[in-house]
Amino acid sequence: MTALAHQSSSKRRLLLASDRSDQSSELASILQSVGEVDRISTSDIPDAPARHFAGMVVDINLRSAESVQRVRSKLRGEAYRSMPRLFVLADSLHHGSMQAWALGATDTISRPFDVESILQRIRSAFPDSSGFDLTEGGEALNTGIAAAHAVMVRIFEKLPAGIPLTFSDILKAETRILRAIKQSSLRSWLATVGRHHSGSYRHCLFVTGFAVAYAQHLGMREDDQRRVARAALLHDVGKAFVPVAILDKPGQLSDEEMSVIRKHPRLGYDALAAEGGFPPEMLDVVLHHHELLDGTGYPNGLHGDRISDIVRLTTIVDIYAALVENRAYRLPFTHAKAFATMEQMGGKLDQHLLQAFRPVAFGSY
């Protein structure tokens, strides 16, 4: 083992579960540069993980029903809920990402491996310490993120499979999310989400964190904070009906792919309207969160006063979250660059709301 691995092993110990004949030797070598690695077969995954593990890497054949069932029976249990779980995907398996999430993944990496990007993902996904925050704020944070994650599962896994999303699914999560931001911090929320999630899950959870922190910063009544939390959680529900290959494309989208993406507000609105039970203002956010005040947004090209306050707020946090997130085709913007970019959008955004958002944005990193 290298000197670097010896230095890191005192901070980070990883469990690598594999069903590959070579026991994932290449991956193990990469992991050893950021920590100590214990390799086991998927048949030897324990019912509960040892507390000294910072996280788990699962490298299995997702086409093998036997392997999938073996891992599912272990990782979907309560004992693994708070442990980061990173799954390895074969690039030829187009729907592997969704299957990995269904098995309990909190992040994914793909073959063929790019060592530098893998190491960056590993360091982000797995904390340096194996312990979890057991303070009151830490417990609230863990519970809040788990509740929000459960909503994401309902949206991106259950809904496309024909299992309806209900308003009660959202109500179950909102109190825990509000408490998580209030008792810990937006910074802690973003750091934890950034380690444990990627793609559409991460974006929706970032938007939710920013929106709730913004509502609390403005001193909104609790009922209004709940309305904002619900809107943020649901704003991208239509992406559940967009092909995974487009959502997960590691690069900028073509014009044709962008036209597909631009259908997601209407798709989400239609799905929730058909289900019934969702307040009109939530449907308003789902349908109109990409509208801009000067009429250049979509899908309806609304102008000024036709765009509600809750939509304007959601649009601001949605854009800001997208800019500060790490994307496959670009590095994340700094908070200063992201905010300046939005100021330069001028009359497209509600600049009064944007300036009120400044303390939240600049205090989040």
From TrEMBL:
<protein>
    <submittedName>
        <fullName>HDIG domain-containing protein</fullName>
    </submittedName>
</protein>
<dbReference type="InterPro" id="IPR003607">
    <property type="entry name" value="HD/PDEase_dom"/>
</dbReference>
<dbReference type="GO" id="GO:0008081">
    <property type="term" value="F:phosphoric diester hydrolase activity"/>
</dbReference>
<dbReference type="InterPro" id="IPR006675">
    <property type="entry name" value="HDIG_dom"/>
</dbReference>
<feature type="domain" description="HD-GYP">
    <location>
        <begin position="178"/>
        <end position="365"/>
    </location>
</feature>
<feature type="modified residue" description="4-aspartylphosphate">
    <location>
        <position position="59"/>
    </location>
</feature>
<feature type="domain" description="Response regulatory">
    <location>
        <begin position="13"/>
        <end position="126"/>
    </location>
</feature>
<dbReference type="Pfam" id="PF13487">
    <property type="entry name" value="HD_5"/>
</dbReference>
<keyword id="KW-0597">Phosphoprotein</keyword>
<dbReference type="InterPro" id="IPR001789">
    <property type="entry name" value="Sig_transdc_resp-reg_receiver"/>
</dbReference>
<dbReference type="InterPro" id="IPR037522">
    <property type="entry name" value="HD_GYP_dom"/>
</dbReference>
<dbReference type="InterPro" id="IPR011006">
    <property type="entry name" value="CheY-like_superfamily"/>
</dbReference>
<dbReference type="GO" id="GO:0000160">
    <property type="term" value="P:phosphorelay signal transduction system"/>
</dbReference>
